[in-house]
Every structure is written in structure tokens, then in C-alpha cells.
Amino acid sequence: MQPQLKSKVRCADREVGEVAKVIMDPLSFEVSALVVSMNGAGERQVPIGAVQTVTDNLVQLRSSSSEVMALPPFKREDYVTLHEVEIPGLERHVHVTPGEVLVPFPELERNVKRRTFFANLTYVTGLFIGLPLVFPVLKYLMKPMYAPMDNRWLKIGNVAKVKADDVGVQFQYKRSIKEAYMPESLIEKNAWVVKASPAVLEKVYQGKDMEFRDAAGKTIWTNKKDTPYLAFSGKCPHLGCAYKWRNHKILGPVFLCPCHLSIYDASGKVLDGPAPRPLDLMPIQVSASGEVQIIDMEFKAGTKSQTRIV
Amino acid sequence: MRDTPSAGPQPTVAEKVFAFVDERVGLKQLTAKMLNESVPGGSRWAYVFGSILLFIFGMQTVTGVLLMFYYVPTADHAYASTQYIIHDVDYGWFLLSYHFWGSSAMVVCVFAHMSQVFLWGAYKKPRELIWVVGLALFALVMGFGFTGYLLPWDQRAFWATTVGVEIMDKIPVIGDFLARFLKGGPIPGQMTLSRFFVIHVMVLPAALIGLAGLHLFLFRCAGPAGPFRGTPVELKAKTDYFFPRQIWKDVVGMAMVFACISALAFWEPVVLLDEATPDPGDYHPEPEWYFLFIFQHLRLRMFSGEFGQFLASMLLPGLLGVMLLLLPFFDRNPERNIFKRPLALIGWVVLTVSILLFTVSAIINRDFLD
Questions:
Q1: How far is CA A186 from CA A3, A182, A189, B131, B238, in A?
Q2: Burial tier of A116 (Cβ tally within 10 Å: 0-12, 13-18, 19+)
Q3: Average pLDDT of A70-95?
Q4: Assembly ipTM
Q5: Which of A183, A241, A260 sits opposite B280 (nearest CB)?
Q6: DSSP track, B126-138
Q7: Total-model pTM
């Protein structure tokens, strides 16, 4: 039977104290020593060999009380509790509370300086491995995010379709897109073309030609202020929905976006709704035969300033 | 339970296997620890939502993995493979519809669970960490819904995502980077689908499993909070154990949720719209129903303009999130009775009612647009 914690300890001559802790050998799972609390006179480590009998509440020692008192005092720092180490399977062999069962603390582990150095070495190694990976991984994930823009002219139709002034006419066209490894695809897009009267033209250009520049600042194209045709990007500047040309009960014929009810007049100016800026214009060329060409552009939605993204 | 030996002299095969494993692993102790958790004040129907959420997540994982046997996450095959699941694979329509309605059920139960915890004051000391981890889990569930929605690649999926990511663009400083990161470029396309797929089936599930584990661990450390009425002595007297009483209620809850989702899957199976095109045409973009209340806020006049839109879609929800996060840290009053916490009760009622109102009005508004 294993000695119970708090059992009284009796020597050959008299009772000396009680079992305070139990020391176990982590390899054999056997109790190797007892720590006896000597009735206020400190603690002594008593090897298990000195135990004669163990009963429910009493541990009987072979030695006399003076022999036990002569033993060296118990050195707590040489041991760790079962809370600090894990000995697999030990609980099945132990019948005392884990906190009071001690196992010897290995000599090698005791040198704090060596442990700190080793811990730091592990962190440094981790950094050596991790840090150089941050940049490549970031670039890896960012690959498609800032692709260069395509400035080809696309034919979208003929101005013969535009029957009246200051009226939105939808032109549908196909744009070829090559995304990463995907096969080249044609996507259907639309633009709204308005043949602007001089008044509307003035509202749009306000006396200045409209310049389109690339990221480096070089001019790609200039829409002259006297060209009567306007090509609006088919995406609403609020959140990118496709808007329509509709007859509004009060405002008359307008551009109306069904998503959040932004309303624009024929010059693209915001009449109502959450749109942050007027309709976006695209570079436009009209040939002598009436062929309309545009550079298809898309702009970031929801911002007051106009930023090109496609 | 297996704690008591069988009445007959010979142990059954099951008991022998149990004893074999127990000798090596301590199975008896483990099962005792898991099942004999005490629920002070007794088991309650109000407590079932946590377990229900775990159940729903399990079902979503199972149906999700099954869907992945046929679904292909490329722009040229996503729609066709989803239609294949719906029309050609046996019971594919049911599995997909179950997965779809399961995600809505998850959002409803998350709201119920959070409300229950809030109303019972179970976020207060010493349960602050459980609440914080819970909020992270809530964000993950919203992320799941947002990323999964894109995968069928029909008009509804594509445009709800486009609008949603554009909203994220409005965050100052990091918004453009974040939106481009999610989209995999300036506009949504194949890169977006790839990213959303990876996030939906790998990144978020890994995070959810980790955080849910942490959530449960922290919960077991602190123990159930129990009812907000009754002295500690009364509550201890009425203690139930997790098994069998609370497990019974949890199982009934799970069965009912399973029945509801199955019924919805059966009677309202997923029907895809047309395949996504870069031009929405006649389609009016709309987010999933649980984002509709924010969607509706964006229509209000007071939130017009760039800053107004940012305010309604990002700043105010963000502030609400921060308030919820800090809740256990500035609400130090140990009082847990909701009827003695008027501010909390009013706050919850106002929030719930306004979310409901905005959601309903968004649905009504649909018919307004031509």
C-alpha cells in the first residue's frame, strides 16, 4: 500500500510528524522517498527503505527519531511537482494528489542561463526562417492586384443610332479580356452615348478639353470640348451597377440607376441619389463615317475623385 | 453509462473494447469529464444554441466536402458544375440546398446565441475572453456567408460580391489594398473566385475549428454562468449534469434545426439565376438576407455621399463591433439579471427591432424597383 499524504509518521520510539510530500522515481513509478514534516522542526527526506509498515493513516519507520532528525533537511529546489512535468501513466500508479507528488528535477535542466540561451536561439532560428518568407509570400499574393491597363481603341457602333440630342443611347460592345491563365474571353459591356447640345457640352467640359493620362502622367488621349459626342462608362459611379435611361415623373428623361436610385441628367451631372460624382466619361473618337471608337475604361466606384482601375 | 459493469457475469464486446482503450488513454476519466459537467440552476432550453451551432457547422462541413466532389472553382466551370450538382447528381439538389439553408440557419442561431449570452449577462467576469472569442467566431460566420455566396457564379452571387467588396474599398488607407487583395485585381474575376474558394474551404474552417475549440475550452474553464436569478445555494441544489438533461435538450434543438433546414431544402431548393456576366443587365444586385439591413441603410438620404456611405457601411457597424468587443470591460456591474439592467435590455431591443425593420424594408423595397 502506498503511504497516504497526511498520514502520521512514527519512528521506533515515538511519533515524529506527518507525510507532507511523496517523492516518486519517474522511471519505475515507485515511491522512492517520503518528505516528513517533523512537527514544526522542518522537513526531512526519508528513503523508502526506512519504512517498515504502511497502514491507512500511519507510516511506521524502522529508524529512531534521532536518526531521522539527523537526516539532511529536505531540498525542495531539487524537485518539481507533477504540475510542472508530465510523466505519462504516472497517475495510474499514484494515489495521492499530483501537487504533492514530486519527481527529481534533472541536473541538466537547472542551468537557467543555458535554458534562456536555447529559448532565444529557437526564436532567432524561427525569425531566420520566417522573416525572409514574408516578402515573397506577400508578392505572391499580390501578383494580380496591380496589373497594367489596356488602352486599345474599340469600335462600339455608329452614331446613326443616336436620333436626338441630349438623349442617352446605349451602345453594347465586346471587350477581349485575358485574365492570368484563363483563355481569352470576350465580355459584353455597354456605354451610354449622348449627342450633346452646346449647352450640355458646356456643362460637361466647362471650357476645357478633357485629358486622359496614364499612371506615369503621359497623356493617352484628349477629348476635345467641341466634339458633340459623349461616351459615358456604363457603370454607375456609386457602386458600379449598370444604369438606364428612363423617364422620371418629375425630372423628365434622365439616367437612373436601379440599385440605389442615383439620377443623372444628360450631361452626367448628379441630380439625386447617393452618387459621389458625375458619370464617368471615356475617350471617344467619331470618324467621318460616324464610326464611334472608345478606349474602354473603368473607374473606382463610390469615391468623389475619379481613379481609373481598368 | 459505461461506469457500471453489466448486470451479467461476462462483459460485452463493447465493454471490453472500452476497457482496452481506457487502460491506455484514461477514457473513463475523459468521458466523465466531458459528460459530467455541472449546469448550475439546471439545464435550460435557452442554452441549446451553442451546441446547435456546433451541429450546424458539422453539417455544413459534411455537405460542403460532398459538394467539393463535383464543384469546380473556375470562372468557366463554376456555374456549370453547380448546375450539374443540382440537376444531374443524385440528391445533389438536396445537399446544395441543405448547405445553402444551413448557412442562413447558422446566422439565425448565432444571433440567438449571442442574444442569449448578452441577456443572461454571461459575458461578464470571469467570462470576458469567451465573449471576445465568440465575437471573432461571429465575424468568421459572416465571412463564411460572404465568401461562399460567390461560388455558384450566377448573377446573384457575382453582383452581391462585387458590391460587397466595393464597400470594403471605402475603408480609409487600407481599403484599396484590401479590396484588390480580395478581388485579386482591380475588378472581380477568376482571381476573385480562386481566393474566395480558398478562404471559404480552408482558411475560415481552420480558423473556426481553432477558435471554436478555444471558445469551448474557455467555457469549460469558467463553467456555465447559469440563470441570473437565485442564490448560489439554490442554484447548486438545482444542478443538472450536461449528460443527460442538457444533452437531451441540445439533441432536441439539433433535431428541430435539422428538420427546419431539411424542410427548407426540400421545399425551397436552390435555383440559380443566369450565369454571371460583367454587365448586370436587368439584375438588381442584392446581398444575402443577413446583410440586407446594412444594404438598406445605404439607401437612406442621410448616408448619401462618399463619407455617408462609408459611415453607414463601415464606420457605424465597425463602431458597433468595437462596442460589443469592449462590452465586458466597461460593463463591470456584476448584476446579471436583465430586468435590472435597463440599458442593456433597451439596447438589445432597439438593435434587434431596428435590424428586423431594416431587413423587412429592404425586402419590401425590392418590388419598388422596376
A1: 85, 12, 9, 50, 70
A2: exposed
A3: 80
A4: 0.81
A5: A241
A6: T-HHHHHHHHHHH
A7: 0.82
